[in-house]
Design goal:
single chain, Globin-like
Length: 122
Amino acid sequence: MNDRYRNEARDRWGDTAAFKESERRTANYSQSDWDGLSAGMDSIMAGFADLKAEGVSPEDEQARLQVEKLKQFITERMYTCTDEILSGLGQMYVNDERFTKNIDKHGKGTAEYVSECIDHYI
């Protein structure tokens, strides 16, 4: 993670247990580890884009399973992703244009779809 984003995250969430857990767990990540994390998230977001393209409702079981995959991926690699944190991520995906742009590279409207899937999951 580059310093700019790390500093922003520290400013926003530095006092939280999740941030401290993430700092501890990723402290020794190599560039290869970060690349794998990025590729894994891209794969999950591409999965959401595929579901959206297939017309799968955010309320559908397939969407729920994809949200669980996202939640588990984050929990295994960074921090314990609670439903509260997951909900916040869903909002951030649509309220922060950087996240929206990155997720929507998989297809226009993917970030909104992911957010809706998370809302229904929660």
